[in-house]
Amino acid sequence: MLEHDQGRQSGSKATFGKVSLLASAVIAATMAPLAMAQELSQEKPMYVPPSEPNEFLDGRVQVNFLAMQNYQAIQAKEGAFRPVDETQSDGFGRLRVNLMFKFKITDNITADIDIAEEPNDFGNNGDRDFSFHQDFAGIEFDMFGLTGYERENASLILRAGNIGASPFQFKGFQDGADNQGNALIGNGINDYATAENGIQLSYTETFDNGLLRSYNVAGHMTTSSFGEAFQEDRGYNYRLQGTLNFAGGFKAGLNLFKANQGDQLVFEDGLASLDGVTTANYRFGDGENYNFSASPSSERDTHVGVLPGLNQAIMQLNLAYQPSDQTSVIVMLGKATDDYTFADTNGNALAGITYFGTQGVVDAAGTSFDSNQVIEADASVKYWAVEAQQYVIPETLYVAARYAESENTSDLIEQTDNDVTRLQVSAGYWINDRTLWKIEYVNQEEGVNSGGQIGAGFDGITSEISVKF
Fold first, then answer.
1. Which parts of 207-275 are beta strand (E)?
2. Alpha carbon distance 142, 375 (integer Å)
3. CA 361 to centroid of chain Cα atoms
4. Residue from 309, 296, 302 nearest 338 by CA
5. Which secondary structure element, helix H or strand E, spans residue 22, and what is its range?
6. Which of 169, 203, 226, 249 is most deeply packed, by most CB within 10 A?
7. Residue of 407, 389, 411 lying closest to 398 (CA atoms)
8. CA-CA distances (angstroms) from residue 424 to 170, 172, 387, 444?
9. What is the torsional sign of CA 176, 179, 182, 185?
10. 324: containing domain
11. Is residue 417 within 8 Å of 449, Cβ to Cβ?
12. Cβ contact 462:444 at 8 Å
């Protein structure tokens, strides 16, 4: 397994402490005007060439087609949970395809659907299922328009259906072929993002002048499933997210998440199985495009797997400076907690869902298992990330980098060698205004107590070419 010296650990904690002080100051200054986060499918503030949707029936129907092909040459590092991942071949992944529709039902009601074939999405049966699925859909009601109270600089939107949930803001998100708003490849090690079923109400107001140019506030309630889940004691997930946009390109956002799924658990001798239990979907992360041969293509196991996602809570602060659509710097820091911790079949606490064991019991010399049991104990992760993007040739060629660090601070986990870090360095070239080619170097390090799911980390080169029509 990986070894980290004590100096690196103390340096990591000191860095997080300084960033936490900055977070506290900003939260205190911005607590009153909480605001809404961008939808995952929304246009991002950095430069993306104009790609107008194809319109039919006098603009009442809009259609976009997206496709993306990727290539990777990535290896897990020595000491991985699954040794076969240490000797992978390089090669091409499966083509990812999205077909997006938007329908103008009336002047104040719209509906949308994203139909996607994503080999790295849950529920598509690994490599065998080449079917299209509903990936994101909903109905939106312009409440001011419907009630006759239109306001020139404000909107109130009620959405029913799939709700895009993520505690990060200002940066791009990658989901299947929808990758052109993301400067890098894949998402972050703590990007708790998903779509679930429910309702969302969001309010936006803009100002023509002054220091504050706009603010947004949104809240949602969803069930912890992209399908349907009505079993006894299945709770809800709640979100309150927001942004403040200031003159000069400064932005700030605060995000609060809370799930209450723990009442489904049935304990016996202090141990509960996750069989039949619906967990918060943002426990998994979303949209990762790094794939390993020992895992099915529909599994995501490169993010941090510390939290079971039962009574999960997240608080995250996002800060950005974007003086133009050619330059962006984003800082994200947060903490995620749960009232439960993964355990082996004997009830021993685990650093994460994936672990070494023999017949399901912790054993560093054994094979690998994914935990299906939890015990009552506080689990938590502290994390931060910084991302920057700069166009070298305006609107044509950019470079970007992201560094992220996650610390497993769970009560029953040894507080040494407990960090996951990831460095991503990328370049992107717009071949034309509908075609983007990206190439990236990625290096992930995982401590033995970090909750990393590869076991020792990984590194290598990955690339994507995508079109949007």
1. 212-223, 236-246, 250-259, 267-268, 271-273
2. 45
3. 31
4. 309
5. helix 6-30
6. 169
7. 389
8. 18, 14, 9, 9
9. positive
10. 33-65+97-391
11. yes
12. no
DSSP 36: P
Residue 400 lies in a domain: no
In a domain, 345, yes or no: yes
Encoded tokens for 433: 């205004």
What pLDDT is attached to residue 229? 76
Give the per-residue pLDDT at 17.
47
In the prediction, which pLDDT does 137 show? 93
Query: CB neighbours of 65 closer than 8 A, spacing ≥ 6?
Result: 97, 98, 99, 100, 467, 468, 469
- Give residues with Cβ within 8 angstroms of 32, minimum separation 6: none
Q: What is the pLDDT of residues 36-77, one digit of tens each?
A: 333 433 444 577 776 677 888 888 999 999 999 999 999 999
pLDDT at position 19 is 40
As for how many domains the chain has, the answer is 1
pLDDT of residue 193: 81
Instruction: Find the helix or strand (DSSP H, E) in which 154 lies.
Output: strand 154-165
Percent of the chain with pLDDT over 90: 65
pLDDT of residue 202: 97
pLDDT of residue 429: 98
**CB proximity list for 51: less than 8 A, separation 6 or greater:** 64, 433, 434, 468, 469
Burial class of 432 by CB neighbour count within 10 A (0 to 12, 13 to 18, 19+)? exposed
Residue 274 is assigned to a structural domain of this protein: yes
- Answer yes or no: is 21 within a domain: no
Tell me the C-alpha to C-alpha distance, in Å, between residue 102 and each of 54, 111, 192, 195. Answer: 10, 6, 26, 18
- Long-range contacts from 220-223, C-beta under 8 angstroms, 24+ separation: 220/163, 220/165, 222/163, 222/165, 222/196, 222/197, 222/198, 223/196, 223/197, 223/198, 223/278
Starting at the edge strand that comes first in sequence, how are the strands of the sheet with 354-358 ordered? 361-362, 354-358, 367-370
* Closest listed residue to residue 282, CA positions, set 393, 198, 365: 198
At 455, list the tokens: 């076991």
Pairing relationship of beta strands 373-393 and 109-117 according to DSSP bridges: unpaired
Q: State residue 286's pLDDT score.
A: 64
CB 29 within 8 Å of CB 425: no
CA distance 284 to 275: 17
For residue 288, give the 3-state DSSP assignment. coil
Q: What is the pLDDT of residue 127?
A: 52
- Here the tokens at position 32 are 């009153």
Question: CA triplet 449, 367, 312: central angle to 5 degrees?
Answer: 40
